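Standup notes
- DV: blocked on the single-chain target, sequence here:
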Amino acid sequence: MNLRAKLFPALFAACVALLALVSVAQYRRAARAAEESLRADTAWRAARLARGIEAELRERADDLARQAAAPAWGELYRAASPAGRVPPPPATDGARARVGDFFAAQRGLCAALTFVRGAEGRPLARFEPSQSEAAGVRVVAGELLPAHVEAGGRGLATDQSQGLATDQSKPRAALARTGAVVINAPVAVGGAENPTTFAALALELKTDALVARAAEGLVGDAGVPRDAFALDRAGRLLYHSNPALKFRNATEATPQLAALAAEMDAGRAGARPFDGADGALWLAAYEPVKGLDLSVAVAANETAATAELRRAGKAYVALALLVACAAVGLVLVRERRAARRIERVARAAQAVAAGNLDERLDVSAHDRTRTIAESFNLMTDRLREHLRRESENQQFQAFMRLSAMLTHDLKNAITGLSMLVSNMERQFHREEFRADAVTSLREATDKLRGLVARLNKPVETLSGEYRSALRPTDLVPLIRRVVEEARVRSQFHEIEARLPDSLAATVDAERVERVVENLVINGLEAMGKNEGRLTVEAGQEGEDQIFLAVADTGPGMSQEFIRARLFQPFSTTKTQGLGLGLYTCREVVQAHGGRIEVESRRSSGTRFRVVLPSRPVSLPRATNSGSVKN
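- DV (later): unblocked, structure below
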């Protein structure tokens, strides 16, 4: 699997993970916002419910105060017997009619209205709503229930030390044991003559009806399931949206409300979640009712409220994944098309590499690889042109190498003949000179004949593979002959030879002799007419190599000249010459499988060192590119 194939699954997984992460983050943020909004809304509804109950109580208390100010209650008080027995029906008829109107005005909130003698705390008459009695009111005789008396508090006390004149100067509300809300309002029946004589009206309100009226418009709207309920300090459900739970202990009826009931029993305000009986998550906000031992709460189904959000979140995640998959599919299709186009380019490149330079790619206007195809076709055109020029350059270089070798050898032969002719004018009369001259002429003729033979066989001349002249040769006599000739030519320089007794190698003796001769002549010419020393060395180099070294004390060369120009043909610093000597030397040494090394420094002289294999080796075809060690 290539790097592209490995990266694609990783990038796809990263993109999907990123989309999923963004989707989850967005969903959580929206869920938190929805929860905070639901919490705020539920808290507002709970507060509205508590304030609504308080407003209802104030309104009912005002109605009761106005009712208590009616003269009918004084008449009923005076009609009662001193023993406190309930007045007979004729005495209660006026009050009955007035109470009927009062009950009708309360819109079903009233459970009963009791007229109590203040001094003794005994009920004079108790009025309850009735559908069958006259005026819709039924008169009940007898004592108040103990729960009513306790709930009435100081308003129903018989002990005047409790301060009826002050504490009962305005209506008060309290919660009875029975769960009813009792409002006490004083009735002044003594007049100015006896201001300490008081009676009271005790109005019992239905708590569930009171809460239900205040909860109108706060529960069940906006499409979110909501419940409202009220708890007294004993933990009883005095009201619940589910009528089956009324007047039951909250913890026993709904164990999920245990923690919530504890907070409400303590009279605290706040909000907390709980698990509903249906398994959904609910959020309840609770608030105490001022002046009563009562707390109310509004609960909203958080699961239902956020259901649409969850569906939208899941749909968003699914849509994101769908878009990601669609994008991936599109990318895959495009990548496969691109891969096919690239494979086409690769096949064309392989054909070109195999030698078919006529291979071309069809260019399509809508092809994404159009630029590559155009560049490939341009490349093949230029490659064909380059190979053509390279072939021409190789032919020219082959001609240059042949010319360099033959020119150099021809120059040396002509130089020898010139010296012979010059000496013949002065020495021809000597017998021994004529004999040496004939020998020299024969050797020169042989050399020229060899040059012509090499010119007729250029391939054999240039190739290092065809070396029929390679023979085992002792190089010491060859080197000594070159040194002796140099001593005869030079009168200004000291020439020193450090040679072993013998040095055997399989070489073309004639060519190696020309290499040594060229290096010696170059060293002498480098020193010029200045005094100097030329040192010629030879010896064994390891087990399979020999070396030849020529060192002079001339001006030396720069490293830049050695690197860039020393072995280049037609590159010379001499006023005379073609600059082919060292180029030819390197070609000959490389044709023998050896190398030529140069050590030179400015004002310190130069040392050429030739390393040759002592045994014949199989070599590839020689080229014009050689390496020079400095």
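- Follow-up: DSSP finds 17 helices and 18 strands in the chain.
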